[in-house]
């Protein structure tokens, strides 16, 4: 009996992490523009469905797609993008979740956006393609502070300069990621990404605004994420981007993360 119980207990703990990973359909956040309420009878409603179907089926193969459907004032524009370092399978399941969830979370809005770590999806009845948008921001901060803010912020600034410069190189498709050793045992990891519809200067502008939140909102925290409609910025003291650094024994678990939404 005891060994059966132990076995069950073993399975319980073994399985639990996978179960919680399966909750990946919970987004990090969404923005449902309350100034764009539409009724089910509106042609925009069915145009959104068309745009979503297209995004979900075609975006994962390249990790990025912009599209539109409809005509005149009812035309709907859509964009879906995965984080540049995730696999096509992860990208595909993320965009599928996004497509499902966004309709449930923002059922009556023509302008809606949804954020995950692995992907971002939005649609609107006004065009936004190629435009920088840093209006609505979602922030995730680790509540713990680093022990040596001065040194940390200097290293963080250097790392950010480096990957922001990488992100605007056309071959990198808006993505910059790297790491730097703070001590023999602590490595700082950071990743930035612009949506791929942005021209170089607009990408740089979005990243500068995102990183501009570091002193105020991220404020020497051990980890921080800035989620905008045009770019994503994140740093952590554990490996979080792919390929995962398996040499680093620091892991994400046990962190207390706080979500902030502005405005
Ligand atoms: C981190 O520092 C901020 C002020 O900069 C403070 O409000 C917060 O409570 C600190 N967090 C912890 C876990 O001590
Ligand atoms: C892990 O450590 C080994 C040996 O020190 C090194 O060759 C390898 O590049 C490291 N991997 C990463 C992802 O840093």
Automatic annotation (TrEMBL):
Name the domain of life this protein comes from.
Answer: Eukaryota
Q: Which CDD domains match?
A: Gnk2-like (cd23509)
Give the signal peptide, or none. 1-22
Q: Where in the cell is it found?
A: Secreted
Keyword Thylakoid listed:
no
UniProt keywords, alphabetically: Repeat, Secreted, Signal
Record Pfam families = Stress-antifung (PF01657)
Could you name the Gene Ontology cellular component terms for this entry?
extracellular region
Q: InterPro entries recorded for this chain?
A: CRR_secretory_protein (IPR050581), GNK2 (IPR002902), GNK2_sf (IPR038408)
Similarity comment: family membership: Belongs to the cysteine-rich repeat secretory protein family.
Q: What is this protein called?
A: Gnk2-homologous domain-containing protein
Give the organism, scientific name: Eucalyptus grandis (Flooded gum)
């Amino acid at each position: 009996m005891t060994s059966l119980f132990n076995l069950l207990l073993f399975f319980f703990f073994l399985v639990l992490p996978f179960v919680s990973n399966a909750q990946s359909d919970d987004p990090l956040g969404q923005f449902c523009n309350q100034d764009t309420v539409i009724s089910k009878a509106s042609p925009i409603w069915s145009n959104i469905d068309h745009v979503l179907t297209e995004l979900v089926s075609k975006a994962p193969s390249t990790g990025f797609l912009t599209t539109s459907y409809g005509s005149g004032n009812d035309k709907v524009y859509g964009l879906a993008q995965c984080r540049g370092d995730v696999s096509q399978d992860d990208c595909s399941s993320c965009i599928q979740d996004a497509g499902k969830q966004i309709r449930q979370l923002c059922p009556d809005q023509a302008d809606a956006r949804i954020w995950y770590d692995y992907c971002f999806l939005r649609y609107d009845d006004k065009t936004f393609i190629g435009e920088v948008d840093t209006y609505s921001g979602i922030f995730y901060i680790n509540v713990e502070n680093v022990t040596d803010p001065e040194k940390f912020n200097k290293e963080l600034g250097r790392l950010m300069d480096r990957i922001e410069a990488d992100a605007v190189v056309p071959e990198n498709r808006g993505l910059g990621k790297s790491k730097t050793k703070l001590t023999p045992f602590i490595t700082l990891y950071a990743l930035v990404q612009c949506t791929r519809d942005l021209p170089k200067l607009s990408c740089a502008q979005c990243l500068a605004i995102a990183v501009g939140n570091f002193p105020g909102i991220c404020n020497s925290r051990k980890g921080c994420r800035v989620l905008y409609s045009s770019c994503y910025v994140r740093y952590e003291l554990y490996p979080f981007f792919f390929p995962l650094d398996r040499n680093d024994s620091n892991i994400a678990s046990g962190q207390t993360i706080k979500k902030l939404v502005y405005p």
